[in-house]
């Protein structure tokens, strides 16, 4: 990270490797997901997605607008799940053995929710920016 930020040539060299790294990251995360558990967690996936979109997202946008006095698009990004959230159930299951029976289904649920967030949240962000603005001040003197 330090090298890429300090030297432009190194940044250009490694910038083309991002798609390759993302491919292998996707393979590693996908290999740990049980598709049978994924198909059996249907209603739980809908509830989890509903919680994120209908409960957490409005709370985050409201807090972003009222407390931070920002347009709200950063709240949408903060509400979207990160890729590492798929690994969290496995880590918890390894540290706390009483949760081990729930690891596969929780991992599958997080994976489905993550895929949903990746595809839907850019459109939600576009809607929020269109409705509340982006917060960018434009120079209207020209």
Outline of this structure?
By secondary structure, this protein is mainly alpha-helical. Helix content is 73%, strand content 0%. This is 2-keto-3-deoxygluconate permease.
What attributes characterize this protein structure?
142 residues, mainly alpha, 8 helices, cell membrane
Order of helices and strands: HHHHHHHH
Radius of gyration based on Cα positions? 19 Å
Backbone structural class: mainly alpha
Largest sheet: none
Span between termini? 39 Å
Q: Beta fraction of the residues?
A: under 5%
Number of strands: 0
Counting DSSP H or I runs of 4 or more residues, the number of helices is 8
Parts with pLDDT < 50 across at least 5 consecutive residues = none
Shape: globular
* Percent helix range: over 70%
Mean pLDDT: 77
How many domains? The number is 1
InterPro entries: 2keto-3dGluconate_permease
Organism: bioreactor metagenome
Transmembrane segments: 12-35, 41-61, 73-93, 105-124
Keywords: Cell membrane, Membrane, Sugar transport, Symport, Transmembrane, Transmembrane helix, Transport
Provide structural commentary.
The structure is a single chain. With 142 residues, this protein is an all-alpha fold. Helix content is 73%, strand content 0%. It has one domain. The protein has eight helices and no strands. The model has no long low-confidence stretch (mean pLDDT 77). GO terms for molecular function: 2-keto-3-deoxygluconate:proton symporter activity. It comes from bioreactor metagenome. The chain crosses the membrane at residues 12-35, 41-61, 73-93, 105-124.
């Amino acid at each position: 990270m330090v090298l890429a930020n300090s030297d432009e040539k190194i940044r250009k060299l490694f910038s083309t490797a991002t798609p390759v790294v993302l491919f292998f990251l996707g393979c590693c995360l996908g290999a740990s997901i049980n598709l049978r558990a994924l198909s059996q967690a249907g209603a739980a996936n809908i509830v989890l997605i509903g919680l994120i979109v209908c409960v957490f997202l409005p709370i985050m946008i409201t807090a972003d607008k009222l407390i931070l006095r920002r347009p709200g698009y950063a709240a949408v990004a903060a509400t979207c799940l990160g890729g590492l959230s798929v690994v969290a159930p496995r880590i918890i299951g390894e540290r706390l053995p009483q949760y081990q029976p729930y690891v596969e289904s929780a991992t599958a649920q997080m994976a489905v929710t993550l895929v949903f967030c990746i595809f839907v949240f850019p459109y939600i962000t576009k809607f929020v920016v269109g409705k509340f603005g982006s917060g960018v001040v434009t120079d209207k003197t020209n």
